[in-house]
Amino acid sequence: MAGGPSPQWLQQHAQLTLDRVLPRLHATFGHADPDAWQVYVTRLRANFHHLFGLLHHLYGDRYDFFYHLEQILETTARLYLSRPADLRALDAARESDEAWFQSQRMLGGVCYVDLFAGNLQGLRDKLPYLKELGLTYLHLMPLFKAPDGENDGGYAVSSYREVDPKLGTMAELSDLAAELRQEGISLTVDFVFNHTSNEHEWARRAQAGEPDYEDYYYVFGDRTMPDAYERTLREIFPEARAGSFTWRPDMGKWVWTTFYSFQWDLNYGNPAVFRAMLEEMLSLANAGVEVLRLDAVAFIWKQMGTNCENLPEAHMIIQAYNALARIAAPALLFKSEAIVHPDEVARYISTQECQLSYNPLLMALLWESLATREVKLLQHSMAERFRIAPGCAWVNYVRVHDDIGWTFDDAAATRLGMNGYDHRRFLNAFYTGRFPGSFSRGLPFMENPRTGDARISGTGASLAGLEKALREEGPEQVELAIGRILLIHSVILSIGGIPLIYLGDEVGTLNDYAYRDDPAKASDSRWVHRPATDWAHVARRHEPGSIEQRIYGQLHRLIEVRKAHPSFAGSAMQVIDPGNGHVFGYVRQGGEGRVLVLCNFSEHEQRVPANIVRANGLSYTFDDLVSGEGLALGDDLVLAPYQFVWLVAR
Ligand code: GLC
Ligand code: GLC
Predict the structure, then answer these.
(1) What distance in angstroms lies between residue 259's CA and the mean position of ligand 2's atoms?
(2) What is the pLDDT of residues 628-638, one digit of tens each?
(3) Distance in angstroms (rounded) separating the CA atoms of residues 17 and 47
């Protein structure tokens, strides 16, 4: 940072601070458990210089900086010393095997507790199903106390310490975490840290006019500041309200609300907020949460005159939390939820920031390729952007609870002869079924008449054509839709990183339009792809010939093949050019093995020249792990509609 203090100054002051604070912390914490205290001190020393630099940049110009710093260290010590023994053992295990999540055995699933199983107890009863599927990572969507009625699917948190009473208790959550851990499944929950609900105690106290709590948020007496900020802000939820601020008649003030009006953005310019949320974060870790999904990371720092997204300080806040987690709960991993331009997505990923990240570019381009039947943008983008920071992993997915936004790089599109703006309009028309001949049945989300922008809602199966095929067409189209569903899942299972299944997709769940009758949901089309699990439907996965069985059976086989082949470990992946614009291809090479993957993104037969297969597969004869059949290459390789092969040399 230009004009900041020199590295020597920071080094020296970090040391002085430690020398002053440690004796005081020792007096408070050092006696109850001297061994744990020693561990704390060792980790603190290892991370402190980095941490000090970050916090100094964020808060160093405040007169009370050292007070806040001491508070932060006090919180970390207290939470480490109260960390349960089994989790400290997990810390040690993870520290000695940092690459554990690079294993090809990793498989993620995500669901809402209430919609999937009623409550936490119900979820425990579903453990056999999760194990059958092969999950090693389970993301439970927001399950904390939230306002009744509208609450953005729980992303408006009223207390990070209380599970929504309809779902269970904090004690049940810890028990579940322990039980999952015993089964080799890491519990993931959201850290919704950009905002709280308007019913959180901090927000209530701000509403009551307590200045300390007004400072927890961005609260303005008139439109001067909101107008000035809005000159450069993007509207995230334009259907909810114009602009990014909400008028509170009870307070006579404007509050910053990037998302819904009941989601109040926290003010990380205030170190008291940083410390308070640190305590919430470490408490979740101590409840047994192994991965925190950092929600809406792009928005956590504001700066006048910018779009207030992806600012350098946003990264510093996350890095500071990461450093504090290394001290108090080293087993904890962060997953970044940055659904933004791919250049910006990459900046959140490092072992010092987020070890895991959603891969929204791959997700969007899988759908893009299904719509166009062409892989040029996918091939080009993955060749350029799939490589990930060392020690980190992508979380690859085809659907989650959110909408699909077309977050590809316009410059890449231009290089390939496409216009980004027009292409997005085409994709929106295609996936809402408005484009002639589209197979898709999706809905627009957050259409913005001012910009012409929109995103897409819909379940994977409905977007891939299964809904239209079943209701309006016939067996041939059903076959193709199933082919599309399996094809895109085959990519997330083989390309490198942790595959994440949006539970329900494994049995081809269709859109559910009933949300339109619920006033708390009707205006948010994302509910169309958030139905309650129909367990009778899931049970049909074992009925030969059923749609559910045809999807689940094949997916389950692919999962088993993935787990059995170390070549699928890690993220090293080489995109190849199969010499056919409808075929996406890449090579995976973990350990000793090598797998050549080829995927036909069209509903017509496609050929890949034999010499290309040989040159990339390094053999003349192969086994296809997908079909279990052998393959001798005389002629070109012929791929059936939507067929994919995972070839290993004989
Ligand atoms: C994240 C969530 C999304 C929510 C938003 C606001 O993007 O995935 O569902 O609406 O944050 O919390
Ligand atoms: C925006 C945000 C993303 C969030 C989404 C919810 O795209 O960037 O964080 O998931 O809105 O719709």
Answers:
(1) 9
(2) 999 988 889 99
(3) 13
